[in-house]
Amino acid sequence: MTGTPQQEEMSREWNYHPDLPLHNPSIFRWPLDPDFLARWLVKNWLTLSERVLMLALAVALWAFFYPSLETARTFAFGWVFKVWLVNFAMIFAVSGGLHWYFYMRKAQGKKLRFERRAMGTKNKLWDFNDQVHDNMFWSLGSGVLQLTGFQVVTMWMMANGYAPVITFAEHPIWFVLWLILLPIWSAFHFYWVHRLLHQPFLYARVHSLHHRNVNIGPWSGFSMHPIEHLLYLTTLCIHWIVPSHPIHLYFHIVFQGPGAAMTHTGYEDLLIRDKRRLALGTFYHQLHHRYYECNYGNQEMPWDRWFGTFHNGSPEATAETRARKKRMFG
């Protein structure tokens, strides 16, 4: 990749990066651009995208795998264990499948992979001296357990009338609109929880476990300290107060769990016959894992730009981020 001297400098730092500096893809740009919003809607909801695949999985989980709300009216080991088992299998299949495809089979080689380095092994930084095994332990242990806990409580609340439930037949417009808004809500929640986790006290004791993954892979997305899982998954509490269908809850579950694996693949896109078929990771978040004190949110929400924590991929932004980190941690 060639370009300006600044781009060439960044190209030496990475195996691959998109055109720099990063542009602003936020739907909250002002003045509003109807054409941009229409393209965003088509890209995310009317083509094969991460969100469409997650929604399809959520519908399948609702129809065939998760217990009905009628079953969830009373806590019982059987249906609670079934939810945990389905979630365990789902996280294992998505994270493990992506890891197998990109890092074991190496089906895409290094095309569109951000980092040059392999996953960490034989290093005491990791539990079990292995990055992937470390990430699997935290994702399938604390991650699946707490994801299931939030889901079980919410299903019980829905089943007993403590959380408002809707049907598509009665509220078709809100049903569709809430699906579109849920990832935006998740991005809003994630930014502020993430900023909290980067405060020195919590970072050192909690969030640093996730940030051992400077070189990220699918298993690292949901690999967190139990306290971080707890804070991260409070996003699901929105269903306690906002009218939702179980499909909304399950879509949110998929977005927070398997979705984290998809966004942490370490690759920008899935290539099929050398054509980009599915967007996966973003360089925006890859920069956060490399430089820490920047890009706390995602590209859809403007918070990093508004609050001065945006890294656009330039050497100047790297210098600013390192200075911010020095001020925070001394």
TrEMBL record:
Name this protein carries in UniProt: Sterol desaturase family protein
Transmembrane segments: 52-69, 81-103, 137-159, 171-193
Keywords carried by this UniProt record: Membrane, Transmembrane, Transmembrane helix
One Pfam family matching this protein: FA_hydroxylase
Keyword match Lipid biosynthesis: no
Fatty acid hydroxylase domain mapped to chain residues: 181-309
Subcellular location: Membrane
Keyword presence, rRNA-binding: no
Biological source species: Ruegeria spongiae
Listed InterPro entries: Fatty_acid_hydroxylase (IPR006694), Sterol_Desaturase_Related (IPR050307)
Top-level taxon of origin: Bacteria
Chief location category: membrane
